[in-house]
Design a protein that fits this description.
28% helix; alpha/beta; Rossmann fold; 3 helices; six-stranded mixed β-sheet; 6 strands
């Protein structure tokens, strides 16, 4: 498994931290959206279940969360979260253009995932919701 830590630019130029866990020959990608007051590092249990089965996992710290920039636990609107996810999706798709992408959202992240899926319904292969708020 290859573990990557990096950052990408959010919708308004904010720097957002992300992690990726990559098996040697991934068969699909899971893009994870964490819950309120969480961070991408809390999803190691998901990584430990999915990565050995051939899934590449990408997770970023939402703006104002974890190692990402922004006012702690604050966002101007849900649109900012959704558009950050779109930029993250685009980064992932550029790296894995031939793979299917599933979106996994937990708690508040499931709300963001539903909003994202409604707005960009043709992009994803599947949607996984956990602890939906």
């Amino acid at each position: 498994m290859n573990h990557i830590e990096d950052e990408f630019e959010g919708v308004d130029g904010i720097k957002l931290f992300y992690q990726a866990w990559l098996p040697e020959n991934p068969k699909a990608v899971v893009q994870v959206i964490h819950g309120f007051a969480e961070h991408s590092g809390r999803y190691k249990n998901v990584v430990n279940q999915l990565e050995p089965n051939g899934f590449a996992i990408y997770a970023h710290d939402l703006r104002g969360h974890g190692k990402s920039e922004g006012v702690q636990n604050y966002v101007d609107s849900m649109d900012q979260f959704v558009e950050d996810e779109k930029k993250f999706y685009d980064l992932i798709k550029k790296k894995h253009s031939n793979l299917k992408i599933f979106l996994l959202g937990h708690s508040m992240g499931s709300g963001i995932a539903m909003y994202f899926t409604k707005k960009y319904e043709n992009l994803l292969t599947g949607l996984i919701l956990s602890g939906t708020a």
